[in-house]
Amino acid sequence: MKIICIGRNYADHAKEMNAKLPEKPMFFLKPDTALLPKRNPFYYPSFTKDLHYECEVVVKISRLGKNIATRYAQEYYEEIGIGIDFTARDLQAACKAKGHPWEIAKAFEHSAPLSETFIPKSSIDIKNLNFSLKKNGTIVQTGNTKDMIFSIEEIISYVSQFMTLKIGDLIFTGTPQGVGPVQIGDQLEGFLEGQKMLDLRIK
Ligand code: MG
């Protein structure tokens, strides 16, 4: 099982990172050890001093496929959740400056906490889905999937040109504006259409 994360898929976030808009989807991977087992606490990693949250809509692949055409991509996922693409922003900046891969900043242990439940895509409008993140009770990120630069179908099609998608693979579809740091003691809550899906305390 693999976790595929899309970078810079919302124009307002690319802008806040002083990054150019991508011409094609940009993705990187996290290992399955990036998942946070249910009811485990999340511990602030010792190797960073600038841990950032990135709240993202997560797609669960439901069918094996490769070289999937965009027009058929909707048949390859049934459920949507929400997750946090934790990022060691200081390590990421150092990797970027050297042109190095950024796994140490993105793919570390428990860097991909996920909602316990996923909701069927048939129950929502996937092309107009509101999501948000609260930090200590205050909304810090709001997004809507209509603002994605690349749609879920385009992402599935693109990624599947390079690697087979397998049942259970997860795609983090990119974060909107408002990423920021967390501290020990902070509480993060993720919402899909106002429904609380994720509740995480930083220890
Ligand atoms: Mg991200």
Q: Count of helical segments?
A: 4
CATH topology title? Fumarylacetoacetate hydrolase, domain 2
CATH C-level class? Alpha Beta
Please tell me the CATH architecture by its name. Answer: Alpha-Beta Complex
The structure class reads: alpha+beta
Q: What's the overall average pLDDT, rounded? A: 96
List the ligand species. Answer: magnesium ion
In percent terms, what proportion of residues is strand?
25-35%
- Strand line-up across the major sheet: 2-1-10-4-5-7
Integer count of domains: 1
Q: What is the element string, with H for helices and E for strands? A: EHEEEEEHHEEEHEEEE
Span from first to last CA? 27 Å
Supply Rg: 16 Å
Q: Total number of β-strand segments?
A: 13
Protein topology:
Blueprint: E1 3-7, H1 11-16, E2 26-30, E3 51-53, E4 55-61, E5 77-84, E6 87-88, H2 89-98, H3 103-106, E7 119-120, E8 130-135, E9 138-144, H4 152-159, E10 170-172, E11 180-181, E12 187-192, E13 195-201
Parallel strand pairs: 1-10
Antiparallel strand pairs: 1-2, 3-6, 3-11, 4-5, 4-10, 5-7, 8-9, 8-12, 12-13
Task: Summarize the entry for a quick read.
The chain is of the alpha+beta class and 203 residues long.
Can you walk through the features of this model?
The chain is of the alpha+beta class and 203 residues long. The protein has one domain (3-201): Alpha-Beta Complex (Fumarylacetoacetate hydrolase, domain 2). Helices cover 14% and strands 31% of the residues. It is built from four helices and 13 strands. The strands form three sheets. Strands 2-1-10-4-5-7 form a six-stranded mixed beta sheet, with helices on one face. The chain has a four-stranded antiparallel beta sheet with strand order 9-8-12-13, with no helix packed on it. A three-stranded antiparallel beta sheet has the order 6-3-11. Strand 8 and strand 9 (138-144) form a beta hairpin. It binds magnesium ion (MG).
